[in-house]
Design brief:
The protein is 0% helix and 42% strand. It is an all-beta fold. It has one domain. It is globular and about 35 Å long. Strands 2-1-3-4 form a four-stranded antiparallel β-sheet, with no helix packed on it. The chain is built from no helices and four strands.
């Protein structure tokens, strides 16, 4: 089953998925954005199988628009 969101960790040149703990996932919330608008979101990091270590991460979101799949993401650093 493909999850609506993924957390990935950058390690030696490639992105690796960080698995959720049993029963953990991101909440499915629909957000409709108007042109030239933005949206902030707060993400809880306590529902993953492993403790997150310092490094480069990204959140990836896939969704469908008019029958085609689109994937967006943003990178961030944990210190």
């Amino acid at each position: 089953m493909e999850l609506p969101y993924l957390l990935e960790f950058y390690d030696t040149g490639s992105w690796c998925e960080v698995p959720f703990a049993d029963g953990g996932d991101f909440a499915m919330v629909g957000v409709v954005l108007k042109p030239n608008s933005f949206h902030y979101d707060l993400i809880e990091f306590g529902n993953f199988m492993y403790d997150l270590t310092p490094g480069k991460y990204r959140i990836v979101k896939s969704f469908g628009i008019d029958g085609s799949k689109t994937t967006l993401g943003t990178e961030f650093y944990l210190k």
